[in-house]
Design goal:
Layout lengths: L8 H10 L4 H19 L2 E4 L1 H16 L10 E5 L26 H8 L3 E6 L37 H8 L5 E6 L5 H7 L2 E4 L19 E6 L2 H11 L29 E5 L9 H16 L3 E5 L4 H19 L18 H12 L2 H13 L5 H22 L5 E5 L8 H4 L4 H8 L4 H6 L3 E8 L5 E8 L4 H15 L2 H7 L1
Parallel strand pairs: 2-3, 2-4, 7-8, 7-9
Antiparallel strand pairs: 1-3, 4-6, 5-6, 5-10, 9-11, 10-11
Length: 493
């Protein structure tokens, strides 16, 4: 049954039409597989079994009555920092362990209204603060490509549970969030497609905020076609989110023919950085050569402020975290400490009990950077350098159409090696290639291209100018068809 979830959305939809399988049967058998395998992989924070069975029954009824919706019968998972009505939304934190929203995040609401079936909420680093999916009250998630689950590989983060849920065949698509690469990073390590859109094309309403100026919902699927279909389903303006683009959204279609002779692809030399493994460098070089052989113009370019982006990201991230997390005070919702001696003591004990050390450290650091004596020195200076990072992209896209870079510097590290480093140091390495796109608000997509000598996925990243999703998806699809990575995936399954 797991092989059915390796089919594309369109292929599976045709099987529903042919009545060779029905959503109800697929859902029941997949849930059985999830309950067995999740014990080893620790992908889900909440398994929505009853909810999924009801949605599947509704999908089957619509199909039988000739009222099929575009995503009827398609299994999805949602990162546990998106609000889901009547389903717990914990952010993998004690602070929200018992929080059940009364409404849906807009992007999930659109999936549900299109007929998608929610199989569960997926694990993450607490409040999305990490790059390994290890800092969760539910424990670490494991990469399904690991040879030995007693000595597992990380699945990346913070959307590691979502990436693994797709890679393991538990669903066809998953929602993640992407603040500094939290969709593309785990997509790279788990061998799936990970997409971050132009800031404002997907609503952030119902996505519990981390860094408002960089947070975007992300999409994880096995193929570019599936990613595009999910994107077209959930994109568009939202009156509940003032940051969404106000223009009506027109569905994106793949280009029938890519004009490679006029396609200019930039190779930023700064991404060939310390820590980049020879295997990733080789994959990057060979892909650039391959695109050139097909007619594309390859240009080596420089983006001098890229190396500063991770430091700027760290400062701005912590400043916005300190502001956003003031709402968790034990009064209105979430965890509340047993201390009624004073309001101040209640606040302090609630936050001490409710947050892990990673979250506390970011709150402390953010408050430090925002002190009156430090405001100009850190926060304002970081904003100025962020503008320089953004200008690097603006200048680059005057001369090239897309950028080709690694997504991560290596294949998935071993969990035991990964946890030896501090969270801050992990993110500095893991997010080096991904966080600049968030600083500039541009779209980016990660595509798996080969297996390493460890038999683990290696992925590359394409980045484009704002609203260049059509070209981005089209070139990504061309690369996907050329490397045929799904052959490796289907063999593994």
């Amino acid at each position: 049954m797991s092989r059915l979830t390796t089919l594309s959305i369109k292929q599976l939809s045709r099987k529903f039409d042919e009545k060779s399988i029905c959503p109800k049967e697929l859902t029941i058998k997949t849930l059985s597989k999830i309950k067995e395998d999740n014990k080893k992989l620790n992908v889900f924070t909440t398994l929505t079994e009853d909810h999924a069975k009801k949605q599947a029954a509704d999908s089957s009824a619509r199909i039988n009555n000739g009222k099929k919706l575009p995503l009827d019968g398609i299994l999805v998972s949602v990162k546990d920092n998106f609000c889901t009505k009547s389903v717990p939304t914990t952010c993998a934190s004690k602070m929200l362990k018992n929080f059940t929203p009364t409404y849906n995040a807009t992007v999930y609401d659109k999936l549900e209204k299109a007929g998608a079936i929610l199989v569960g909420k997926t694990n993450l680093d607490e409040f999305g603060m990490g790059s390994g999916c290890i800092d969760s009250i539910f424990g670490s998630s494991k990469n399904c490509w690991s040879k030995d689950l007693n000595n597992p590989r990380i699945c990346g983060g913070s959307s590691g549970g979502s990436a693994t849920s797709v890679a393991a065949g538990f669903c066809m698509a998953a929602l993640g969030s992407d603040t500094g690469g939290s969709t593309r990073n785990p997509a790279s390590y788990c061998g799936v497609v990970g997409f971050k859109p132009t800031y404002g094309l997907l609503s952030r309403h119902g996505l519990i905020p981390l860094v408002n100026s960089m947070d975007v919902p992300g999409i994880l699927t096995k193929s570019v076609d599936d990613c595009l279909q999910i994107f077209n389903t959930i994109a568009g303006p939202d009156k509940l989110d003032s940051t969404t683009v106000k223009k009506p959204f027109n569905p994106t279609e793949l280009l029938k023919d890519i004009d490679f002779k006029n396609l200019k692809i930039g190779i930023p030399r700064e991404y060939n950085c310390e820590g980049l493994t020879s295997e990733v460098l080789e994959a990057w070089t060979k892909m650039a050569d391959f695109l050139e052989e097909n007619g594309a113009q390859i240009h080596e370019i420089t983006m001098p402020y890229t190396t500063s982006s991770i430091f700027v990201y760290s400062i701005l991230n912590q400043c916005e975290v300190s502001s956003n997390f003031s709402r968790y005070d034990g009064i209105e919702y979430g965890h509340r400490a047993d201390d009624e001696t004073s309001t101040e003591n209640l606040y302090a004990k609630t936050r001490a009990e409710g947050f892990n050390n990673v979250v506390k450290n970011r709150i402390f650091a953010g408050n430090y950077f925002l002190l009156r004596k430090n405001y100009d020195k850190y926060f304002l200076k970081a904003l100025k350098v962020r503008r320089l990072v953004s200008d690097d992209f603006r200048k680059a896209f005057k001369n090239v159409d897309l950028l080709l870079t690694p997504t991560t510097l290596s294949d998935a590290p071993l969990l035991n090696d990964f946890v030896r480093n501090h969270n801050r140091d992990q993110c500095a390495v893991q997010d080096f290639c991904t966080c600049p796109a968030n600083m500039a608000g541009i779209p980016a997509i990660s595509i798996p291209v080969k297996l390493s000598s460890n038999k683990l996925p290696i992925s590359l990243q394409l980045m484009g100018n704002n609203f260049s999703e059509q070209l981005l998806f089209s070139v990504a699809k061309f690369i996907e068809d050329s490397v045929d990575f799904l052959t490796y995936y289907n063999y593994k399954m």
